[in-house]
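Regression check, protoporphyrin IX containing FE case 554:
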Amino acid sequence: MAYDMTVWRRLLCALLTLCALAFGPAFAADPPPTDQALRQQVQPLNNAPVWREVRSGEAHFTTVKGVETGVLIQSGGQTWRALRNGPITLYGGIVFSAMLVLLAVFFKLRGQIRLSEPKTGRLIQRFTTLERMSHWTMAISFCVLMVSGLIMLFGKHVLLPVFGYSLFAVVAMVCKNIHNFVGPVFILSVLLFIVLFVKDNVWQAIDALWIRKAGGLLSGEHVPSHRFNFGEKTWFWLGVVFLSLTVGASGLVLNFPNFEQGRAVMQTANLVHLIGGLIVMTLSLAHIYIGTLGMEGALEGMQTGYVDETWAKEHHELWYDAARQNQGMEQTPGGLSAPAAVRT
Amino acid sequence: MARMKFICDAERCIECNGCVTACKNEHEVPWGVNRRRVVTINDGVPGERSMSVACMHCSDAPCMAVCPVDCFYRTDEGVVLHDKDLCIGCGYCFYACPFGAPQFPQAGAFGLRGKMDKCTFCAGGPEANSSEEEFRKYGRNRLAEGKLPLCAEVCSTKALLGGDADVLADIYRQRVLTRGKGAEIWGWSTAYGKPDAPAAAPAPSAGGKS
Ligand code: HEM
Ligand code: SF4
Ligand code: SF4
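Current build output:
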């Protein structure tokens, strides 16, 4: 029946169009009859076409102004709710916690990766001040976003039972506002970081060796590399470039409701933000571990900008060799600085 | 205990916006917020149908499920209310609600929305019934005064009904019997799920299609 109706309607429309073409604009003004108008001629009080419109999620006429006020039923919210409250919260929580446990176990088994040779006491410059500033702005804002974001997602399940409603609402309010204002700072620092570091993160032939030896992570062997090894490069491209920019872009969409985005856009942005955020937070734990507890001398480089020659030789041999050859040359960002920079 | 629901009869609504106006006036609703609105399908052409929509006080309420501070609660009468003192204005309830009921006084940059506002079924909020404080945040508490929602009370065609679901269902069933057809009630299956509860369904093809 419904099929027949549409066929007839099409024919009718075609006929009307022909008439309009033949007789000019006088006829063209008539709008085609609605599905409902046709339906109620055949089946009075059958509102099926209207119920379809109600369900369509499309905007209809209303005098009330606002975001999607003409929409009667938006179904996407149900999907969003099911995904966010269901698998994303559950598996996101499991994976994040599993990484914490994994790192604790790894630390227990492997301990800190120490230098094999004694320190020389001679320092060479690894990072310029600008490089360190962009790294720490990014790192600190990231940690703030991580803690505040985690509280918005898991706080209801973890903190609320402990804090009670009033206190938790204050904490969540503070977190929400901090998150929303620190977010743009994070994005700017990421962009600056990418500009400063991209040239030393381009893949090189030597990376194949690192991949073959799995970075020497298990064997404890030192695999030579240029300024950054393949592991660091992967974190740069995956964690900083891809994930941080994805999370940042979706965060911007959520952060500026003044552009009156519809609900579908917000639901999608939240899902992208959540999934991307959970992955990058989980991976960042491994990066933070190796940069602090996991490896002797790594933190020093980013703190002071200088590393011991022994550390440079053991972890980034090719960079160290090139830097030695450049001795006496003008200081280049990230390269070995002139002998003046060699401190004892 | 009665289970409060709204019905809007699409055969009767004439899009007069009386309910919208009455609500705004009764509760002195914040600027930019309309707790109720009327939406018209096929506006101005044959087959036109209008429907008044506000919070439906869902059974398994999506807003309640996603709120990060868990500020919603359900009264004994099935009315879904929230605590503005706890609300952080994150907008999640607005993303989740199928009816677009939760609204915000602002839509500021950096997610500064203010406290969420929505239809309370004229049942106020967590503050003491009919207190100054309650009125300022949530509007009048008519249920506490033994009255039903004003929007439905003023509806000139009785298209919009609000009250005990069993009573509403009986009235609607009578209408369906009289006109012989059109048992669907828009929004009911979305808000209250498939009609498995007894007496939630007014007629054979119960609960409606939307
Ligand atoms: C990589 C760093 C980031 C992480 C790990 C992160 C994580 C999170 C998490 C877990 C949530 C909670 C989502 C939920 O409960 O559904 C969230 C919400 C949110 N994030 Fe982020 N986020 C990051 C960066 C950003 C940035 C850069 C911005 C903005 C420019 C941003 C803006 C938002 C907004 C607007 C919300 C919604 C809640 C609200 O309105 O306060 N986030 N984020
Ligand atoms: S209609 Fe919207 S705001 Fe009202 S209870 Fe249902 S989900 Fe919540
Ligand atoms: S806007 Fe308020 S009521 Fe809505 S989900 Fe966020 S905190 Fe809860």
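Comparison notes: The first helix of chain B runs from residue 18 to 27. Helices of chain B lie at 18-27, 62-66, 92-96, 132-138, 150-154, 165-179, 188-192. No diff flagged against the previous build.
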